[in-house]
Amino acid sequence: MKTVLASLFNILGILGTLLTLTALLIWIERRLLGFWQDRYGPNRVGPFGILQVVADVIKLFTKEDWIPPFADKGVFILAPTVVVITALLAFAVIPITPDIGIIDLNIGLLFFLAMSSLAVYSVVLGGWASNNKYSLMGSLRAAAQMLSYEVFMGLSLMGVVMLAGSFNLREIVAAQQGLWFCIPQFLGLVVFLIAGIAEAHRLPFDLPEAENELVAGFHTEYSGMKFGLFFVGEYLAILLISAMIVTLFFGGWRGPWLPPLVWFFIKLSFFAFFFILLRAALPRPRYDQLMAYGWKLMLPLTLLNLVVTGAVVLTIEGT
Description:
The protein is built from 13 helices and no strands. With 319 residues, it is mostly helical. The radius of gyration is 20 Å and the shape is globular.
């Protein structure tokens, strides 16, 4: 009974923390963008504008919950929930500290890749069910972009698997006791980071919702809380990719002096802020440039990393 209660407390605690961080990240992004772009940002609702998120939620709840008359209503309503559910499920396998984490799967890394792959259905179904040409174009872009970068994301992590000898995320963190994998797997880290930005379709890779070309892409017809769910899913994706970078390349909770939980959140915050900085600093490429960049540069780099890592591991095991 105590074990069940402890597991339930663990799940509810992680879920509550994630949703709180998601809301906080919306405010942090606006404040940081204002700082980096030399403007005020939100500063009217509460001290330092911290209640701006509450005002936004009230606005979303009170907006008309409209569904286009020619839309596929069932799929239209279901699509925004898919991206939130898959992101939350992916967090289940991430070890936050030695004692905090929902489940310890021996195929945790494969589970994460599977959940990130399923998230594309949210965008595709949302665009298709809207019965709108801009939405359909946005969803087709998203499908091609996310499926292409899934290939590099998966392959970029195989070097980490070879070094750790496991798909278990706790064992991967344990294998970094002497040396974080960001050093021997620097190329894998760069490829995974870029693929993660594309998977979360954040700037500069937000072409599925490029507002100056496609109005708002796949969520053009969405409003109210269904529109809000797409954005909750996007911010959860930022936290998820940041947490995976910390776990796979930066030793997870490991660090001197401070408690493991503090170290994990310091590292997580650094990469979440880096995602926001990219939005403030980089322009959006053309769609053909994005796809060419992936297949002509990312794929060769990923294969090179795999070959070199495999050769080094075989050489070390043979001596």
